[in-house]
Design goal:
Layout: H1 4-9, E1 13-20, H2 25-29, H3 42-55, E2 61-66, H4 70-81, E3 88-90, H5 107-113, H6 115-122, H7 137-154, E4 159-164, H8 166-176, E5 185-186, E6 190-196, E7 201-208, E8 223-224
Parallel strand pairs: 1-4, 2-3, 2-4
Antiparallel strand pairs: 1-6, 5-8, 6-7
Helix pairs in contact: 3-4, 5-6, 7-8
Length: about 230
């Protein structure tokens, strides 16, 4: 059987480098962002520069996709600035999960401020929507995996970057490893998912932050979860 690199070369698969956005002030404060449009903070901008320098050394990146939310888009634009000739293509289906009435609340206080919405967030039911227009896990899963599938079909035999959010990346992991748990997805972490023509998803790298280890920004790389977004 051909190896994964051969599959990429002969056009039978797509390699997607999935990057979580840099840190925001709300990440640092433990406020739940959801689809609220929060800027990167200074640490997040430095993290974006660091991951951009890393990806500038990756061969043959042909496109950069991003959520249209500012924290992801600025991260993607920073990456594009170091990858000559590439522009960022936005995709609203790469947005973070909408968490309804919980958006803007500090996670540790949210169960007291809005217990109904908090219980919906923590519900074991995957089709449970969150009051205030929030998505269920099923809705998020369908939205973001469909987005990645579209990107893969457009770029067979190519390597592309997709900049997105913690809850989205966790769902991509579940698509590749059903029943698995992604754990906390760190700010500007790099994961690599290979998608074959046969609709097989495989993970080549997960939640790697080696580019931050030699910097002062490692400790600030918050893990993506219900508490950060």
């Amino acid at each position: 059987m051909p190896g994964k690199d051969a599959e990429l070369t002969n056009g039978s698969s797509t390699e997607i480098i999935v990057v979580r956005h840099g840190e925001t002030e709300w990440n640092a404060l433990g406020k739940m962002q959801g689809q609220m449009d929060i800027d990167l903070n200074n640490v997040g901008r430095q993290q974006a520069i660091t991951v951009a320098e890393r990806l500038s050394r990756e061969p043959n990146i042909s496109a950069i996709y991003s959520s249209d939310l500012k924290r992801a888009l600025e991260t993607a634009q920073t990456i594009a600035s170091r990858c000559v000739g590439l522009q960022v293509i936005t995709d609203v289906d790469l947005r973070e999960r909408h968490i309804g009435d919980l958006q803007g609340l500090v996670f540790r206080e949210s169960s007291k401020i809005n217990p109904v919405a908090f219980e919906a967030l923590k519900s074991p039911k995957s089709d449970q929507e969150i009051p205030g227009g929030g998505e269920s896990r099923d809705q998020l899963y369908k939205r973001c995996t469909s987005s990645l599938q579209r990107i893969a079909e457009k770029h067979r035999g190519e390597r592309v970057v997709a900049v997105t959010h913690g809850a989205v990346i966790e769902m991509l992991y579940k698509r590749a490893i059903p029943g698995g748990k992604a754990g906390g997805v760190m700010n500007t972490s790099v994961s690599i998912i290979q998608l074959s023509k046969e609709d097989v998803w495989s993970i080549k790298l997960w939640n790697d932050i080696s580019h931050l280890k030699e910097t002062e920004f490692l400790e600030s790389a918050a893990g993506g979860s219900d508490s950060s977004g």
